[in-house]
Structures are given as C-alpha cells and as structure tokens.
Amino acid sequence: MTAGDSLATGQRSLGDKDISYPLWPPLTNGCPRTSTDEVAYPVEVDYTYERVNSDLLSHSGRGSRGSGLDRWAPLLPPLAAPGLGEGGTPLVDIGGGVFVKDESRNPTWSHKDRLNRCTVSAAVGVGAQGVVVASSGNHGASAAAFAARAGLRCVVLASDGMPPAVDTFLNAYGATVLPVPEAARWPLMRQLVERFDLHPVSNLTVTHTGHPFGAEGYKTIAYEIFTELGVPEAVFVPTGYGELLFGVWKGFAELKRLGLAQRTPRMFACEPAAGGPLAAALRAGRLTGRIPVGPTSAYAIDCSVAGHRGIVAVRESGGEALVVSDEEMRSAQSELAGQGLWAELSSAAGLAGLRGYGAFDGPVVCVSTSSGFKDLSVGSRKSEAVEPTWDGVLSRLRATGFPT
Amino acid sequence: MTAGDSLATGQRSLGDKDISYPLWPPLTNGCPRTSTDEVAYPVEVDYTYERVNSDLLSHSGRGSRGSGLDRWAPLLPPLAAPGLGEGGTPLVDIGGGVFVKDESRNPTWSHKDRLNRCTVSAAVGVGAQGVVVASSGNHGASAAAFAARAGLRCVVLASDGMPPAVDTFLNAYGATVLPVPEAARWPLMRQLVERFDLHPVSNLTVTHTGHPFGAEGYKTIAYEIFTELGVPEAVFVPTGYGELLFGVWKGFAELKRLGLAQRTPRMFACEPAAGGPLAAALRAGRLTGRIPVGPTSAYAIDCSVAGHRGIVAVRESGGEALVVSDEEMRSAQSELAGQGLWAELSSAAGLAGLRGYGAFDGPVVCVSTSSGFKDLSVGSRKSEAVEPTWDGVLSRLRATGFPT
C-alpha cells in the first residue's frame, strides 16, 4: 500500500459538521470559522467511504504485523512518511471478559506512534524541513523517531522538569531537545512554526485541537479490536486531551457507517482525579474545559485543558467521563503486572476506570498506552543486597512471604 | 492452538545426535551421557516433522499478532503457560537490502519473551510452584512476567551491580529479587532448585546449556522472517551464550528439512570484542569455550563462557563468529536511531557485525534484541535547560547545527 491508496477527501469541522475544507494544508490551528478566543474546534478527515473495499476489515487477520498502519491506508490520511511497523498490537485476555490492548508494543513503546505516523506524513506531504512538538514524553519521542525515519529534523520543546529517563528517550533519535518552562512552550512553538519551515505535530490552540491527521491514526486501534474480537461492550481509555478516545471512537463509528458493525461500544474516558477537564466540562454542559491540576504521578495525562474531541466521543457513544485516583491507577498497574504487563502509571488509568465502574455483560477492552519504563519510579533502586549464603537467601525469602 | 498441538516427541543430545531422551522432564542439566566436568552439552527438542501441515509456514501471513507463539505450536514444546502476544515482531527495512528484526516489540521488550514462554511452559508442565532465574536484565524480567501470568512464583538471582532501571524492571512483575555477587549466583540457584520446588529457566551447567525448551522459542524468529521475506543470505545475531543464534539457525534448518526452503542463511555470531568466548572457541577448534571479559557497556552479552549451541549454528550454517567493539556497537546504535529504532547497545551488535563485515548480494537480517530503555546510559540527564526566549532558542539551535 502507498500514500496513493488513501481515500481521504478533505477536512471537516467538529464545530459545525456542515463546514468542510480541502485536505491540504492540514488545519493545525483548528477550524478557522467556528473557533473562538475561548474554544478552539478541531477538524477531522473525511473519506469517500463508499469506495472502501469491505475485505479491508474482514476477520481474516490479513496483513502481517510488519505492515504497520499501511494495512489501513484507505481509511487514513496519505501515509507519505515511512513506517516502523507501528500498530498491530496484541489484545491480551486478562480474564473475566476483560482484554488489554497493549500499546507498549509499538516502535517507541506507546500508542503515540499511530498518531505520529500520520502527523509526520503530513509534514512530508507539505514538504516541511522538519517537525516541532511540545512534549515531555511519549508524544515527543515518537515524533522524533518518525521524523528521523523520514529524514526530517525534529525540535522538541520539553518541560524542564521531565524525568531523566524521558530525557534520554527524547534525545535518542537525534532530535534537538529544548527544555523550557511550561508557560514558554507554546509561544516558542508558534514562533518556530512561523519563522522556520517546521510542521507542528502537537497542539497550538487555546483548547486542544492537536494535529488534524493525528487522531486518524488511533482509529486503527478500533479496526484491530474489531477484526480480532468484534465490537466490545465498552472501551476504557486513559485520557489526557482526548485524541486517543476520539480516534478509537471514530474507528468504531466508521465500522458501523460502513455496515460492517451493527453497533458501537460505549467509550469511557479515564482522567486523573487530580484534574479531569473533560469530566468537568461534561458535568458543566460545556463544549470543552480548563481546570487546575493537582499533584499526580500520571504525568502523561495530567492535562489542565480538554479538547472538543473527547466531548464528542463520550456523548455520541453513550459513554462516560470517569476520574481515577493515583491509588486506583497503582492498583490497576499492579493488576496488570500480575498478568505479565508492566504499564506506565497513566497507562493503567483505563483498567482503573473499569474496576471502579463495575462489570459488563460482554467483552470490555482497556487500552494500556505505554510501557512501565516511562514511569517516574524507574531508576530508584528497590532491591536491597542479600547476604550471599543459603541462610541469607532463606531469611530474605521468608521476609517476602515465600513459603519455605 | 493449545499445548496439545505440539508435535514434540523427545529430547536429543547435541553432544551425540544418536542419543535421545523422553520429552519429560526437561534436562536442565544438559545431556547427562555426553557432558564432562569441562564441557556440558545441551539437548534440543525433537518433533514428528512428517506430521507438520505445510500451511503452517505459508506466506499468507495467517495468524494475527495477538496469537503470539501459539501460531507455531506444532513445532514448539507444549505451550502450557499462557502467552502475552509474544513474537510477531516487525521486520523493518532500513535500506540497502538490510532488514532489522525488532525484538523490542515483545511483552517485556526483548527477544527473551520467546524463550520464556517455552521455559515457563516447562515449569507448568512439570507442576513446579515457581521458577528461578539468574539474570540481571531481560532474561530475568521476562521470566518474572511469564511466571506472573501463569500464577507461578519467580525468584531472580540478580547481580548486585545491575543498573537501577533494570532493578525497577525486575521488581515490576512481583518477583523476589535477590541481588548477590556474581560468584554466588549459580551455587545459590542450584540450592533453590534442589531444596524448593522451583524450575530453573536459566543455565545451571559448567559451559552453557540453558533450558532445553528455551532456544525452541527463538525458532519462531526464523519462521516469521521466512513468511515475510523468504530465506535471507545471512542473519547477524547479538551473541552472549548463543541460544538465540542457535534457535534462529534451527528454525531455518527445519524449514529446509520440511522442504519449504531450498537453502539456509549463513549465521553470524556478533560478540563484544571485550570477550568473545564463541569466536575464541572456534579459532581454537574447541567445542565450547571460556574467556576473560574486559570492560564493555554491552552488559546483556558480556559472557565469559560459550555454549555448544553457538558452535553448531556457525559451523552448520557456514557462518562466522565476529567480535565488535563498543565503538562499533555505538555507531550501529546511532544508525538504528536514525531509522527510528532505539536499541540497547548490545542489541546493535548484529548491525555492527554486518557493517564491519561487508555487503551481501541478497537480503540480510540483523536481529535487534531489545529496547534502548535497558541501556546503561538511561537516566543521566542530557539536555541542558535553554533560556526560554526566542534568542535563547535561536542560539541553542545554532549550537546544535540547525540551519537558522
């Protein structure tokens, strides 16, 4: 498959679905006609759905893992940037009808690779010399990896307080990493976009709109779940700005639109209780929201501002926006580890949301977004040395509850 | 597929191929009849090859990623332990006929998950209460993950000098981690095996034999390469004890034996130049070897002792045992990062070996074993804060060679 396989036709406003724009250039400042100084509305990508070959979404498991997002090229923006075998992640059955979609199996070990295959493809499509991204984590490292693969420069505006392991990660792919205080990131990002030929692959607007092609990449999670499991009752998603939540929702909505699925799952946003702008906006009946964020170790989803995409996903799917405490996420993280899956704390928010919510009659999918190696706790030595004798070993085993 | 699909029939000595044993119990002390006080010989698993359905290895890409090693159950020991969607990793084309088999996409982000699915299955098969492993890295964490998934205990005899991030990793899955000096590890491991009902999933013998079922898991790398690419000219493999090298070799040898492939690839062992017991043994015409290891950052493959498996793989395939310096591995690591793949230093040994060796007429596969997150360098802050003004950003961009 090549970029030429894409059936994308244009961009449509989420602020008013009757407003559409050409596919190029990607509207990285959101919908210019509906956005206000208070609320920015994203655009999404439109396709000629009537030309989709229904074999594309058959249950046959066609397409090998190595093919990455290319398998779904007709329902994605043109994939002009080379891939890294992103996507195709396993759905791990943890019992009780619960399945974990383990996104840590991606090229940079998080779901963000699905987004950045699409955003860096946009940068290639507009002929940019590089990309710029504001991120202190998975988003930035993934952008750096796909930019390197495409032969583009990458500038990362990182937070000065990022964990050291994340700093190593961001630097690994040859990006120019600029640690700056939070407040300076977006003004500097806008300047970098305006003064250099750098395509922005993270958000630029007052409420979150992100890159119009990015969430499209997340639709492939829905396609993969569908080909393996059918339509689950519910999907629980760790939620920061709501791009992942929306992308998974849109994928299922498309399956129904294409007549392949009879129904859609309920989408559950799982935000840290320390913040939760989406839950707050929904409670207040607003179209998006901003909220102060208290202390939390779930640094990947501790967002103070929501995006309109999350509202759309929860409302249209008949879902809910839940908040989960750090303690609940730690408990879910332990449960995942007990099944052999070591997830970043934020990644466990999906399972934490499910455990707090209750049971379902049919299968439920919890998306686990990233690897435990991104956790803040990584690198603090935990194991104490043991006396290297049999007695020393025995006494340690007994201390840890091992039946001796 | 279930454990019942396995066509495994018994264990055969690598010391004398005419000697065979029943499949159970797994001979974790190597071949009792051919091993001496100086050299231990492993056993391998035998199958009723004539009963293999040739569809199993068709190029159709049958079997989804989520199915893990189960796809290949007939040619593996009984998979009694539950899987985690291990294997099915992408083959990334980096140009010039070179493909990288990226094993960092496994459940614990290294190739060891293929081995441990099989070794922990052996522990389940013998009804052990748990497993014990001597490791300060990928092998131990992977064993801990599969043991947790199977509901078994896991004791890890780690090195007191392991990197802190690896310590977090080993502890993540609920294992009992016992850091002890190198010399104490194997005596204590033998005691744990003898006195408790713990199945050993790493080596117990004087030269390396490892677990007889472990290398079988690595055969699936050959099967996956074959279904996607056919038979490459050569495979370059980061080599410590030679289990991975042997497993990949055996997989290709089986494909030829089954009449599915016309030939086999040349197998290249890539050891750190600071040691290199396999290269030394081959030079000296010995059947295995022991050698002092100097300083190297490739801690995952800095072995002082070789195993007979590596000798078999290099000799039977017409391959070679190469050594690569840390500088060559760093250069290969940078090359991989420039393609969007961040590998642990040891993981880059395969590509380093190829780059030092020269070109081939046909496709070549370099196995990249693990993620950059396991590197010793992780966690040392690299990025200096930048003055958060446009002038500050400009001056940093210029300092890093960015065209402004």
UniProtKB/TrEMBL annotation, chains A, B:
Gene3D superfamilies, per database record: 3.40.50.1100
Matching InterPro entries: Ser/Thr_Dehydratase, TrpB-like_PALP, TrpB-like_PALP_sf
Cofactor(s) needed: pyridoxal 5'-phosphate
Alphabetical keyword list: Lyase, Pyridoxal phosphate
Transmembrane annotation, as ranges: none
Span of domain Tryptophan synthase beta chain-like PALP: 85-368
Top-level taxon in the UniProt lineage: Bacteria
SUPFAM superfamilies: Tryptophan synthase beta subunit-like PLP-dependent enzymes (SSF53686)
Matching PANTHER family: L-THREONINE DEHYDRATASE CATABOLIC TDCB (PTHR48078:SF6), THREONINE DEHYDRATASE, MITOCHONDRIAL-RELATED (PTHR48078)
Name of the protein in its database record: Pyridoxal-phosphate dependent enzyme
